[in-house]
Design goal:
two-stranded antiparallel ribbon, 12% strand, alpha+beta, globular, 2-methylcitrate dehydratase PrpD, 60s Ribosomal Protein L30, Chain: A, 10 strands, 52% helix, six-stranded mixed beta sheet, 2 domains
């Protein structure tokens, strides 16, 4: 049996990965790439079936290197590049000729997409028909986890895949936030230093977003408001500007990769950039910064095991927001009571934010979450936080997160379907 430190390292290595583009359309492209790679010949037809959550998040987001948005172009490009070995950076291999050919496939109605209610969380089934036969590839549980592969009717690989992630011996559900804080605080820097790579990666895409060429240019707009004196240059506004700029570029189709957290680029953005900026302000060492990043990623993973990988509640606001809050309070020197108290404040503040798909307006939600995470952390250091049960806020942060799960899974069971209906009507 592994120690808790070793379990946490495995979780971090698995959940903190670079990706090019939003991870839902990338998962679609990756499944299509795998199915296409099984056969030679010319593409005749592509069919993609996804869970509601994947469809919702892939429908309106920018696709790198294309200037386009959505599922159709992502599926076509994946099938054309047919290079699944690149994983979540599969679209890195896209060339101009691939984009032109993808447009032809879409225009000729050779790409079909639909969603199913049979699977929750991450689920993609890609069927690619070529002149030499047909390939099928399924991704489930995680954005780069293949659970089924078939070539011309012959099953090459299979495992049981349902709505949850692949079964593992270690579950984040079985721990407490205090376990994360205590364990990470005592870990060696050498085992966590790799997390710092995500900081520079996400700073790069933030700098790209500040140029104002992507999405709604919200990060660029924050900079303009600072110049006009409408906003200040304090730590909250600086972090808001950075996270929105990075999200603008990512959701707008930038060709730069991001470091993700639990399969989400936006969650990776809010965690890395918020913590890095606060750590810089406080003069923290690389070791302290790396440990703060570890705490945040692990809290994010803990919350998402309760909510699910894709949920009706916005993950960047809730799960990544709670992780960021915990880490910043820890950087400020807060004890476990203040850390969980700050998290309770963010939980009470941001629970109601819906996930209505990945798109340009996600930048607004990142700004809200990042700002409230920092404010709640500083308030907690003054012992200003929720001290008793209120609404959905439980006695402990673990109780509150379990309440989140009930709201997301039971209370909002039809939310994704309703949101999808609205999105598809708007698209018409």
């Amino acid at each position: 049996m592994l120690s808790l430190q070793e379990d946490f390292i495995q979780v971090l290595n698995k959940q903190v990965q670079p990706a090019l583009g939003c991870t839902e359309p990338v998962a679609i492209a990756l499944a299509c790439a795998k199915a296409s790679s099984l056969l030679q010949g010319k593409i005749k037809y592509i069919q993609v079936e996804t869970s509601k959550g994947v469809f919702k998040n892939a429908h309106g987001v920018g696709i790198p290197n294309t200037g386009e948005t959505g599922i159709f172009i992502a599926a076509a490009l994946g099938a054309l590049v047919a290079n699944p070995e690149l994983g979540l950076q599969v679209l890195e291999a896209v060339a101009d000729e691939d984009v032109k050919e993808a447009h032809k496939l879409v225009a000729a109605n050779k790409v079909e997409t639909r969603y199913t209610g049979d699977f929750e969380g991450v689920y993609v089934k890609a069927t690619v028909k070529k002149t030499e036969g047909q390939g099928i590839a399924c991704i489930s549980g995680m954005h780069d986890h293949f659970s089924y592969v078939e070539k011309n009717g012959q099953v090459l690989y299979t495992e049981e895949f349902m709505s949850n992630e692949p079964t593992e011996s270690f579950s984040m559900k079985n721990i407490k936030v205090a376990d994360i804080i205590t364990t990470v605080s005592n870990m060696d820097f050498s085992s966590l230093s790799f997390l710092l790579k995500g900081v520079e990666m996400n700073k790069n895409i933030a700098r790209e977003g500040l140029k104002g060429k992507y999405g709604l240019s919200i990060g660029y707009g924050y900079g303009l408001l600072q110049e006009q004196g409408v906003l200040g240059r304090d730590i909250v506004d600086e972090v808001k500007m950075l996270v929105t700029a990075a999200s603008d570029a990512r959701m707008g189709g930038s060709s730069l990769p991001v470091m993700t957290s639990c399969g989400s680029g936006n969650q990776g953005i809010i965690i890395t950039l918020s913590i890095a900026k606060v750590a810089e302000k406080l003069g923290k060492t690389e070791e302290e910064t790396a440990k703060a990043l570890a705490i945040s990623h692990l809290v994010n993973a803990y919350v998402k095991e309760h909510l699910g990988v894709l949920a009706p509640i916005c993950g960047a606001s809730v799960s990544a927001g709670l992780g960021t809050t915990a880490s910043i309070t820890w950087l400020l020197g807060g004890n476990i009571e203040r850390i969980t108290g700050a998290m309770q404040g963010v939980a009470a503040n941001l629970t109601g934010i819906l996930c209505d798909g990945a798109k340009s307006t996600c930048s607004f939600k990142l700004a809200t979450s990042a700002g409230e995470a920092i404010i709640s952390a500083y308030l907690a250091m003054e012992d200003i936080y929720i001290h008793k049960v209120q609404g959905i806020i439980g006695e402990t942060i673990e109780d509150t997160i379990r309440n989140f799960s009930l709201i997301s899974k039971d209370g909002m069971g039809k939310a994704d379907e309703t949101i999808l209906d609205i999105m598809l009507k708007n698209a018409q």
